[in-house]
Amino acid sequence: MNDEIFDVVNERDEVIGRNTRREVHRLGLLHRSVHVLVHNSQGQVFLQKRSMTKDRQPGLWDSSASGHVDSGETYDACALRELREELGLSPQQAPRPLFKLPASAETDHEHVWVYRCEAEGPFSLHPEEIERGAWFHPEEVTRWLAKQPQEFAAAFRVIWLRITHSPPAS
């Protein structure tokens, strides 16, 4: 995992170099990631509990699938790869981009594209990445997050607040 190579980017998300995962995180360099929220036909969202072996925010609840964009990879390609790797999901359509968050301390210095897709499961969870996963009604997630924010990954908290406090799409 620490041998992964990431593009190092500036505040405008322009590539300015490359470095290993370990060094990018150690030095707090700006880089890229994706988060994908999978919804089912009942309006529920699938969340994952991160494996305790993860080097960042282990054991916390997070988006359906998420991960770093590899050097030279696009955000869209990364979203598809993460769905395959973490959930065993190969959607018929590419996930729909919702919005982009700028790199910040809350996103672990990552520019984050957030996506949405539809699927029913069941999923094949990658055990090194995910301890477990479950479907939740959005209102349930909102209440849980308000009462116990420490149980959620930092970037997910920012994403969920943005989703729940944004006006509905027309």
Describe this structure in words.
The chain is an alpha+beta fold. It has one domain: Nucleoside Triphosphate Pyrophosphohydrolase, CATH 3.90.79. Helix content is 24%, strand content 32%. It contains four helices and nine strands. The protein has helices at residues 21-27, 75-87, 138-147, 154-164, and strands at 5-9, 15-20, 31-39, 45-50, 61-62, 65-68, 96-101, 110-118, 130-136. The strands form two sheets. Strands 3, 4, 5, 6, 7, 8 and 9 form a seven-stranded mixed sheet that branches. Strands 1-2 form a two-stranded antiparallel sheet. The longest helix has 13 residues, at 75-87. The relative contact order is 0.21. The mean pLDDT is 93.
Q: How much helix is in the residues?
A: 10-25%
CATH class: Alpha Beta
The termini sit apart by: 41 Å
Report the portion of residues in β strands.
25-35%
Number of helices: 4
Look at the structure and give the mean pLDDT.
93
Within CATH, the superfamily carries the name Nucleoside Triphosphate Pyrophosphohydrolase
Order of helix and strand elements from N to C terminus: EEHEEEEHEEEHH
**Structural class estimated from helices and strands:** alpha+beta
Q: Cα-atom Rg, whole angstroms?
A: 15 Å
CATH architecture: Alpha-Beta Complex
* DSSP strand count: 9
* General shape: globular
Give a short account of the largest sheet.
Answer: 7 strands, mixed
CATH topology: Nucleoside Triphosphate Pyrophosphohydrolase
